[in-house]
Structures are given as C-alpha cells and as structure tokens.
Amino acid sequence: MARISIIFYSMYGHTYKMAEAEAQGAREIEGVEVNIYRVQETVPEDILIKSGAKKAQETFKHIPIATLDSLTQADAIIFGTPTRFGMMAAQMRQFLDTTGGLWSRGELVGKIGSIFTTTSTQHGGQESTILSFHTTLLHHGMIIVGLPFTLPALSDTSSVHGGTPYGASAIVNSENNSPTELELEIAKVQGKRVAEIAKKLFV
Question: In sequence order, which residues have a C-beta less than 8 Å from that of residue 70 and are 6 or more positions away?
Fold first, then answer.
C-alpha cells in the first residue's frame, strides 16, 4: 500500500478541519493507508487558555504527535499550517528544523510533498506560505504536488474563498469561523490527488 502522512499544526482547529478533509479525499483511493499527526504545541498553556485555543485544541487532542517516523514511514506527506505573517507557523518550522539528520541521509528524497494552509484574511499570505514551505521540501528532494486548474473551484470568482494551484487554503475569521464547504472540498481533492499519484509511484 502507498502510505500517506498528514501532518498539521492547528491553534484553533481550523487547520485540523482541513487536515480531516485532506484525509477524507485520500481515503477515497483504494490501496492507500492514511495517518494524521499533529505538530507539538509550543505556546505556553496560560496563553492558550486566555486565547481560547486550549479549549479548541480539545477537539483534536486524540491525534498523535508527529515524529520523524511520521515522515520516514510515509511515501507521501501532506503538511498543513496556519499562516503567520505570510509564512508557516513557528510550531511547524520547529518540527521541520529537527529533520536535519533525515536530510543528511537523504531519507525524504523521492517522497511526495504537498501543502495546505489557513489565513484569517483574504490577502493574508496563503500563497506565500505554501510557496515558502516548498523550499524546505525541495531541499529534502521531495516531489511537490499542487492542484491543477482543471479543478473548477480554483477559477470560481462568484465568492471569496481559499484555494490555490499551490495547495488548498481556507479563510477563517470571526465572521467565517470555519472553512467553507467549498474550501473543504478543495482540500479533499488535494488529498485524493496526492493519493492517486502516490499509488502510481509506490504501489
């Protein structure tokens, strides 16, 4: 079977919902094993409590913490991160910064890598986050998979929503406090596409 790891960081649960949609799409492909992992939280607990994030994180505390094995044991890895000032969250960066040994041994070379993200504003840096994330994957020798414009939702201008050719995304804020059905559907398509390609390459 082709093995897919979905590794995400989520502070308030929005990116977790996208991760679940990615997994749902990937599981539509037979002959694929999908596992979801979360990146370790680094924000002090008192701040998490005051911000409401601690309560939000209760919804996905059952998801196991990502380790280096979560990377090496997979054929394809889909990473999910909130956007922080146009870049990945520090928690995800910290996790990736522990992969130097894997890099030196070339253990991720030839694996598939794909990215999704969430932002709190329409122009909050969705594309720059995904594109800058690609740099790390390329240093590891990974094969990057995005979303083609054959997906109609990417060209839909009837509403403001996430979704880029670089990877799925969602806009979440106080008015729209969850990824929309369209954004979740785009994430499903991404998960399915990664699974389809992984099956062709590794099964």
Answer: 5, 7, 35, 37, 77
Q: Using DSSP, state whether 42 is helix, strand or coil.
A: coil
β pairing state of 169-171 and 112-119: parallel
pLDDT tens-place string over residues 153-197: 999 989 899 999 999 999 997 566 799 999 999 999 999 999 999
Q: Is the dihedral of CA 186, 188, 191, 192 positive or negative?
A: negative
Contact between 115 and 80 under an 8 Å Cβ cutoff? The reply is yes
Beta strands in 39-100 (DSSP E): 76-84, 87-88
120 marked ligand binding residue: no
- Tell whether residue 84 is among the known ligand binding residues: yes
| CB-based contact 60:13 (threshold 8 Å) | yes
Residue 87 in marked binding region: no
- 15 labelled ligand-binding: yes
**CB 166, CB 135: distance < 8 Å:** no
d(CA 3, CA 201): 11
CATH of domain 2-202: 3.40.50.360
Consult the annotation and say whether 85 binds a ligand.
Answer: yes
Mean pLDDT in the chain?
96
Q: Where are the domains of the chain?
A: 2-202
Which pLDDT score, from 0 to 100, does residue 174 have?
59
pLDDT, tens digit (0-9, with 9 covering 90-100), for 80-123: 999 999 999 999 999 999 999 999 999 999 999 999 999 999 99
